C-alpha cells in the first residue's frame, strides 16, 4: 500500500492514494497506521478517492473530481478537517492529480465542497462561515471552563482561559469532559489565551486543542476558524483577520460575511510503502 506523509503546522496525516475506491480501509487499519510506535504515526488518514467512486462523495461528483475521505487516528470518521484539506490539496497538486489555476480548486468533504488557493508554501481553503450557536462548559483536571459552541462543519467548544491560568500549564493528556446532550457525536475543545498584536490582523489568539478521536494535536484548522470567530465576536466584529498561534506554528483565519478562509503552510515530507498485514494495535 503506497502512502505519503504530510502535515499542516504539525497536524500530521498519512495520505493513501485510492482513486477508484478499491482499498479495504477499516477503522482497525486506520488506527494501526496512525499508531506512533507500531505504525507510521499520524493524527489521521486522508484517503484520496474520486468523488464518483465514494458513496459519500458521489452526490458532489458534478462539482469536483476528488473526495477527501478523512479518518481520525482512532479509526472514526470526521466531517471536516481544515489542515487535512490543505495537505490534501498540496498532495493533489504535487502528484499532478490537479492543476493550480487562477480559480479556486474544489475538494469534496463530508461537510460539503471546500475550495483552495495556493501561493507558494501557503495553502488556503475556503470553508463555511463558523456558526456560534450555544454556550456550554468543559471540565478539565478539576477546572470548569465556560465556552462557546461553534459549528465549522464539525463541532467545537471554544474556551478562553480566565486570568491567572496559563495555556501551557493545561494538562491535555486526558480528554476534557463536555455536555453529551449538546455534543452527541463528541466535540473538539479549544483552549485560548490572547496574544500580542500582529500587524495586518484584527486579533491574535494562542490556542491548544484536544481533538475528538485524536487527543491533543499540534494544530487544528477548523478549530482555528472557530477560535477566530469567537475572538471577533468578543471584539464586537462580524468579520476580520485573526492570527491563531498553535503549538505547530501560525494559521491565519479570514472571516467574511459568507465564508471563512484558513491559510498556512502545508508540507509533504515522505513517501513509501506500508505492509498492512504487519500492523497491529495495542
TrEMBL record:
User: Where's it mainly located?
Assistant: cytoplasm
Q: An example Gene Ontology cellular component term from the record? A: cytosol
- Pathway field: Amino-acid biosynthesis; L-lysine biosynthesis via DAP pathway; DL-2,6-diaminopimelate from LL-2,6-diaminopimelate: step 1/1
Q: Which reaction does it catalyse?
A: (2S,6S)-2,6-diaminopimelate = meso-2,6-diaminopimelate
The molecular function terms of the Gene Ontology recorded here are: diaminopimelate epimerase activity
Q: Which residues bind substrate?
A: 11, 72, 82-83, 154, 188, 211-212, 221-222
State where the protein is found. Cytoplasm
Q: Which family does it belong to?
A: Belongs to the diaminopimelate epimerase family.
Do you know which NCBIfam families this protein is assigned to?
DapF (TIGR00652)
Q: What does this protein do?
A: Catalyzes the stereoinversion of LL-2,6-diaminopimelate (L,L-DAP) to meso-diaminopimelate (meso-DAP), a precursor of L-lysine and an essential component of the bacterial peptidoglycan.
* Protein name, UniProt field: Diaminopimelate epimerase
Gene name linked to the record: dapF
Amino acid at each position: 500500500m503506497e502512502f505519503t506523509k504530510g502535515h499542516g503546522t504539525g497536524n500530521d496525516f498519512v495520505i493513501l492514494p485510492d482513486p477508484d475506491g478499491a482499498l479495504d480501509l477499516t477503522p482497525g487499519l486506520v488506527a494501526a497506521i496512525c499508531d506512533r510506535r507500531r505504525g507510521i504515526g499520524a493524527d489521521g488518514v486522508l484517503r484520496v478517492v474520486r468523488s464518483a467512486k465514494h458513496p459519500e462523495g458521489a452526490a458532489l461528483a458534478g462539482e469536483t473530481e476528488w473526495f477527501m475521505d478523512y479518518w481520525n487516528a482512532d479509526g472514526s470518521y470526521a466531517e471536516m478537517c481544515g489542515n487535512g484539506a490543505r495537505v490534501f490539496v498540496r498532495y493533489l497538486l504535487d502528484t499532478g492529480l490537479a492543476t493550480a489555476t487562477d480559480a479556486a480548486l474544489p475538494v469534496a468533504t463530508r461537510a460539503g465542497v471546500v475550495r483552495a488557493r495556493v501561493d507558494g508554501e501557503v495553502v488556503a481553503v475556503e470553508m463555511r462561515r463558523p456558526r456560534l450557536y450555544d454556550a456550554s462548559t468543559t471540565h478539565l483536571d478539576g477546572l470548569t471552563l465556560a465556552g462557546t459552541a461553534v459549528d465549522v462543519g464539525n463541532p467545537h467548544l471554544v474556551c478562553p482561559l480566565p486570568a491567572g491560568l496559563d495555556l501551557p500549564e493545561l494538562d491535555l493528556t486526558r480528554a476534557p469532559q463536555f455536555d453529551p446532550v449538546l455534543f452527541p457525536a463528541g466535540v473538539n475543545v479549544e483552549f485560548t489565551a490572547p496574544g500580542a498584536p500582529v500587524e495586518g490582523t484584527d486579533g491574535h489568539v494562542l490556542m491548544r486543542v484536544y481533538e475528538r478521536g485524536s487527543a491533543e494535536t499540534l494544530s487544528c484548522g477548523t478549530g482555528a476558524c472557530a477560535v477566530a470567530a469567537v475572538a471577533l465576536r468578543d471584539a464586537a466584529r462580524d468579520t476580520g483577520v485573526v492570527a491563531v498561534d498553535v503549538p505547530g506554528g501560525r494559521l491565519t483565519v479570514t472571516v467574511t460575511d459568507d465564508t471563512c478562509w484558513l491559510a498556512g503552510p502545508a508540507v509533504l515530507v515522505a513517501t513509501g510503502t506500508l505492509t498492512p498485514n504487519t500492523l497491529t494495535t495495542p
